[in-house]
């Protein structure tokens, strides 16, 4: 972890490590970000920005196997490190599977989102992660307090059940200048 003084509104800047693929021990924790930050000695914070139904963006619709614009449940939160906004994470769920469950209720799901999915009968089978670097949207620029010209990295992780049903699409928008992405392979198979 690295903390430096920045020039953007006088805010302190941080550098957060984000593992790709996400380590299973971290995925199984109460919060992916809180577990990552704790391992790095960061003071982590999170705040729920929105929980409700919204139209599925094209890339999320493709992951959840629904037509673009279909109503999906979105759970959007802001993640901070040492008081600096570093990520906007949005969990998307198919409304046909999760409307009327605690997944659709406001606030954080206790004890964890993963335990709620299991309690609803969804056993994890596999996941796919994609990564795209791009300019931020106006919402992302404002929420992450990005300077003009700063980019974001979009990590989209889709979790499928053992029946190959897309259960959870997690879109994490990371302030690119505040992250280092560590890429690992299966243990014993790393190569230069």
TrEMBL record:
Check the record and name the InterPro entries matching this protein: Bact_HTH_transcr_reg, Chorismate_lyase_/UTRA_dom_sf, UTRA
Q: Which Pfam family name is an example for this entry?
A: UTRA
Domain of life of the native organism: Bacteria
Taking every annotated instance into account, which residue ranges of this chain make up the domain UbiC transcription regulator-associated?
39-180
Organism name: Nonomuraea salmonea
Q: What's the protein called, per UniProt?
A: GntR family transcriptional regulator
């Amino acid at each position: 972890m690295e903390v430096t003084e920045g020039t953007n509104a006088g805010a302190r800047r941080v550098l957060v490590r984000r593992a790709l693929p996400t380590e299973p021990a971290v995925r199984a924790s109460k919060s992916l970000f809180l577990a990552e930050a704790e391992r790095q000695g960061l003071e982590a914070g999170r705040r729920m920005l929105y929980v409700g139904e919204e139209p599925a963006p094209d890339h999320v619709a493709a992951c959840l196997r629904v037509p673009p614009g279909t109503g999906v449940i979105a759970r959007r939160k802001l993640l901070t490190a040492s008081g600096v906004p570093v990520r906007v994470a949005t969990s998307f769920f198919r409304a046909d599977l999760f409307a009327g469950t605690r997944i659709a209720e406001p606030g954080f799901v206790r004890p964890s989102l993963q335990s709620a999915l299991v309690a609803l009968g969804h056993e994890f089978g596999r996941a796919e992660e994609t990564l795209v670097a791009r300019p931020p949207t106006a919402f992302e620029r404002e929420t992450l307090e990005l300077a003009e010209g700063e980019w974001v990295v979009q990590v989209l992780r889709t979790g499928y059940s053992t029946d190959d049903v897309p259960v959870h699409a997690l879109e994490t928008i990371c302030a690119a200048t505040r992250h280092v992405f560590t890429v690992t392979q299966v243990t014993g198979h790393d190569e230069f």
